[in-house]
Amino acid sequence: MSKILVLAEKPSVGRDLARVLGCNRKNTGYLEGGRYVVTWALGHLVTLADPEAYDEKYKNWNLEDLPMLPQRLKLVVIRQSGKQFNVVKSQMNRKDVEEIVIATDSGREGELVARWIIEKARIKKPLKRLWISSQTDKSIREGFKNLKPSFKYDNLYRAAQCRAEADWIVGLNITRALTCKYNAQLTAGRVQSATLAMIVDREREIHDFKPRNYYEITAHSDRFKLKWADKNGGRTGIFNKDRAEDIVRRTNGKPCSVVDVMENDKRKFSPALYDLTELQRDANRIFNYSAKQTLSIMQRLYENYKVLTYPRTDSRYIPTDVFETIPERLKAISLGNYKKFAQQIMGRKIIARKSFVDNSKIGDHHAIIPTEQRVQLSKLSPEEMNVYDLVIRRFLAVMLPPYEYVQTSIKADIAGELFTARGNVVKSSGWKKVYERGESVKTETEKDDQVLPKIKKGDTLNIRAVKLNELQTKPPARFTEGTLLSAMENPQKYVKLDRENAKTLGETGGIGTVATRADIIEKLFNMFYVEKKGREIVPTSKGKQLVNLVPKGLKSPLMTAKWERELENISLGREKPLVFSKKMRRYAVDLVDDVKKSSNKFVYDNLTGKKCPRCGKYMLQVKGKRGMMYVCQDRACGYRENISRFTNIRCPECHKKLELRGEGQGRIYVCPNCSFREKASLFNKRFEKSENGLNRRDVSKYMRKIKRENEKPINSSLAEALSKLKLK
Fold first, then answer.
1. In angstroms, rounded to a whole number, what is the distance separating the alpha carbons of residues 707 and 693?
2. Within 13 Å of residue 157, how many CA atoms lie on the same side as its CB?
3. Does the keyword Isomerase apply (predicted)?
4. Is 275 annotated as a binding residue?
5. Is 260 annotated as a binding residue?
6. What is the pLDDT of residues 597-609, one digit of tens each?
7. d(CA 276, CA 301)
8. How many CB atoms lie within 10 A of CB 563?
């Protein structure tokens, strides 16, 4: 009997497919049933060969050997994945396997994973494509009933291949050129460089910013306050202090007459459904999750629990066929705090509003929404529950009635000067009720709102005082991971461009993709180009210098946006891959020439006196996302050594987060902000746990006790010795 081989991207997905397809016989690296054989990759099993595969001279990094431009890039099996590749290849080559179904992730990268395996294994059998947006049993069964011919995705594969080859040609050449030229561990790439440049430019704006004093004037009545506004344009701030003081003198103690009252009925619908970037932004803003962390959590909710749809999507809408399944999805989430809202929606006709149902705004995948599979909330970790909760509340909100309120605006006259006040009166909370126990969703109309009494035109208000408030202009805010994602998605709002180029950036969806942005941000931290101060992202000296060393075109978001447009055109069959490939090769030549001709210098400002135990060169002290570490300056050596690890335990003196320094029995909690320190072994012994097992209440209780003991007038020789201890 002939069989069909199904290729999944990961073992967990493969097992789910096998269960639905009735493949119960377990084998090494695959599962088999009467009709199907299911096997899997481990992410990528095949990748592009390293430079030394083309020429022995590339084993050594030399500037004179650049650029590297192999006529045809080779595929190689990833060494750690060789065993599984051989399993997949042998199953594909079975005589009884007549057809292969590609069941990797439904996207550009998933297509590349499968096609490279098939190409490397030299398989010529008929191919079909499983294209689904959720991993529920129902979705899998329906997907296999509606398999697509693989040729429909040939252009998607070509676009993915062009992207990978361009990143090799451009990325490896510019990385080797910079590293060799400046004898430092430097990397560059089209998305990474553009993203880093935005962070460095923002830091430069903050450094160059010169604050200016300005003044606002408020009139305080018995029940609310009014703010002065310029009659010509409505400005509320005054930079001229003399003028501001003169207005206060002329209006203080003078009668206030209401000259206009406007009441407008307003209604506001819920924000749109989540795509990955918007979800990562909110998770960062509310829970301080990194973009990578949010994607990882989403992947588990999609693959392991099967309660949310495909995460790597850039759409915030659902198509009409998915809209028809909403009742089943509402039943699946009708539990806990969601139940009453789900039942309210199901109790009346659900309207397919254009605000969330629109076939024309769907790309490869629709917005992130719940599946038809019922969730067991008790099985979710706190982090998984937080992300799941965000998605479910947004899903419910888009189908609930609008938030309705009456917006009242008052204009008053005091001694010929205009004063205004604005306030809202809620008529119906609508969809906002979903957020009453969760994170509130503020809208622009709610800023500075206050409750206003019933007032009519001609009324006289009792003004108790007119006050002058001195303020300062503020520099632009540093990026957080959430706002950096916004900048990557809409870079035209953060860089100076003419109208035409800004339009190009807007139309191409910015720099990077929803699937790659988290990895790019993570790489900036891992390469020590940026570090965190609280939630803010700050460029290091290495990052600032790199931006100055990278050729101008590579760090422009416009260039990478144009790349994405060309790749999109390739995926749609509008552009030939060969044209794009030739363009990238010419560009790589230009980049290497720019670096070779450069007269710039690179200087380490974090070099220490500690020598590397492997190669003897002096090491660098760097700050990673999880702590401080020593890193060998020699790229070929790559030795790293931890100095300290950041913890969530708060200092009892200044409430800053403590660092855990040292190794083994010598580990010690140290506050980087004040003089507090406590030996970790004593801390752990007190609770008979590791520091990772401590909860906040235990830590807080113990820290208070330590503080009380520290405040006692005792000066033992041990305490004196510890106070003088200098830990590097």
1. 22
2. 17
3. yes
4. no
5. no
6. 999 999 888 888 8
7. 13
8. 23
